[in-house]
Amino acid sequence: YQPPSHPRPSAHQSAAPSSPFSDPSQYRSYQPPPPQTTHEKNYCRTWNNSKDMSGINLSGADLREKDLSGRNLSNANLSNANLSDAFLHRVNLREANLAGANLFRANLLEANLKNANLQGANLIGADLSGSDLSGANLQGARIGVSDRLMVKLTGAKLSGLIMPDGTIHS
User: Fold this and answer.
1) Which CATH number fits the domain that encloses residue 136?
2) What per-residue confidence (pLDDT) applies to 28?
3) Contact 109/130 with Cβ under 8 angstroms?
4) What percentage of the chain carries pLDDT values higher than 90?
5) Which of 13, 33, 75, 165 is 20 to 30 A off residue 108, Cα-Cα?
6) How many domains in the chain?
């Protein structure tokens, strides 16, 4: 028995049919996504896992319309964070840094803001009813338009509060 002979390709024919995978210059190496910043890593790790987020760095984070109710954010860095329309009912923000934060229409009902830094924060439309603002610093914070107070403070504790104009509430 003799196996059938196959004609050899001529110089004008290629030995194998061309394939989109046959040219190595067509391959691109895998590029991993850029690394997350520290506050994004910490935020992602703790967001769903824990009510205790004390000391977390969320500076500049976009937390619009997020529900952080009941969380412990004491000593957290939320400077320049966007918390507009966020639900922060009974959140612990004791000694938190909220300087320059946007809290437009945020619900801070019964929040603990003792000794919190709210310098330059936007609090227009925020509900701070029943919140403890004792010793908090609101210097330069936006709390109204002209002479109209646009922050709800019903039942809020204000002793030692530094007002937007720098005066201390007794």
Assistant:
1) 2.160.20.80
2) 60
3) yes
4) 52
5) 165
6) 1
The verdict on residue 152 lying in a domain is yes
Whole-number Å distance between alpha carbons of 63 and 98: 13
What is the C-alpha to C-alpha distance for residues 96 and 63, in angstroms, rounded to an integer? 16
Residue 7 has pLDDT above 50, yes or no: yes
Q: Determine what percent of the chain is predicted with pLDDT higher than 70.
A: 68
In a domain? residue 158: yes
> 3-state DSSP call for residue 39?
helix
Model pTM score = 0.69
> Looking at the predicted structure, is the pLDDT value of residue 131 above 80?
yes
Residue by residue, DSSP assigns 44-56 as HHHHTT-SB-TT-
Domain that holds residue 155: 62-170
Q: Which of 115, 108, 112, 105 is nearest to 138 (CA)?
A: 115
- How would residue 48 be classed by pLDDT, with cut points 50, 70 and 90? low
Q: What is the pLDDT of residue 27?
A: 59
Structure tokens at 129: 């009813």
Of 29, 24, 76, nearest to 50 by C-alpha is 76
CA torsion 73-78-84-88 (nearest 10°) is: 10
DSSP annotation of 162 reads: B
Residue 26: other Cβ atoms inside 10 A? 8
Domain membership flag for residue 70: yes
